[in-house]
Amino acid sequence: MKRLKKFRKRVEDVQILPSDLQSRDEFLKYFRCLTLDPNTAHCNLIPSEKNRVVRYTKIDQQYSDHPDRFDYWPQVLCKESVCGRCYWEVEWESDGGVAISVSYKGISRKGPGNECMLSRSSQSWSLEYVSSSLSFWHNSIVTELSVPSSSRIGVYVDHSAGTLSFYSISDTMKLLHRVHTTFTQPLYAGIGFYKDWWSKSAPTVRLCDPK
User: Which residue range or ranges hold the B30.2/SPRY domain (predicted)?
Assistant: First the structure.
């Protein structure tokens, strides 16, 4: 009987991983409604709409000092950690510089160094859209990618399997880039803006609701 109980426990502990997801409906089964953490937002970023939208402004906001706040790069992280299998969608309204990222909570926040930048740090992984070009960044290493036909991006994380995937979403889902690694900590979704590359329009990024 003891052996049977131990066997049952081992079976329960085994995580059955799904095969590659294909349709958006399959991804939406793992949809996570994320919210931005205002305590991390740089003073040139304005979270709004229940912290589901962030807009860049040239006017410094009078935010309180906070150890979690990015003080040089215009970036913001989400409150909720990403573990297990999670999917979310992001859409930008600008042709300026935007980074769609995941990061460990321990990423540095103070100063201009690469260790604080979502698109350069060893603690973050980023899809970066700048001047009509698309690239993937991790630890200051870049991979150039094909430009998506849509400004709406799906992000899928399978934390235990060590996969991070970015998709372009239009009528269909097109894989833009996939990373295979080992995640050693919970991940946090992040958004970055890069102030040297502005377009005429004010950059805005939205965490999308499933439709």
Answer: 13-211
